[in-house]
Amino acid sequence: MKSVKKSDLPEKICPVCKKTFRWRKKWEKNWASVKYCSEKCRRNK
């Protein structure tokens, strides 16, 4: 099993709250289109 450190995962900055967020397994197939860190930020865009 391949192990990756959290510090090695790609990250983005949320345009709503300006916080950085890291890649998650559930975003594996559409990471390029993810813009917001949470559902709350997505609703308050």
UniProtKB/TrEMBL annotation:
Pfam families: DUF2256. It comes from the Bacteria. PANTHER family: DUF2256 DOMAIN-CONTAINING PROTEIN, GSL3115 PROTEIN. This is DUF2256 domain-containing protein. It comes from Salegentibacter maritimus.
